[in-house]
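Reading a protein record of the kind used here takes only a little practice. The record below shows the convention in full:
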Amino acid sequence: MERSSRKVKGLFKQPQSNNYLTKVKGQVLTTGTPDFTEALRILKIRHGQAAEGYPILKRADQIKYEEAAEDLKRHYTTTKTRDLEEAGYRFQHLDTHGSLKFSAVAKIVVRS
């Protein structure tokens, strides 16, 4: 039996979709991949995060850096908790990664 045709609880494909979906704690989220092995890895990560008590965020892996930076700048402006000029210096080295998804930028920052 081919591995991708095995049934795994919480991992499935809908007929009209190429990508696998996961179901963790009642929430159905896309894995963004048609590859069974990668989808299984993502499912295990999501189960682990749920077991540790982390919230299951629907779009966390799809948020772009630009969106996150704009939201943070808006937060600083609204709450006046940080000077925007100072925050600009902090964002400067990350702005080169603007078109990436936020999760990818976070990995780059952690590695460097």
User: Anything to note?
Assistant: The longest helix spans residues 36-51. Confidence is low (pLDDT under 50) at residues 108-112.
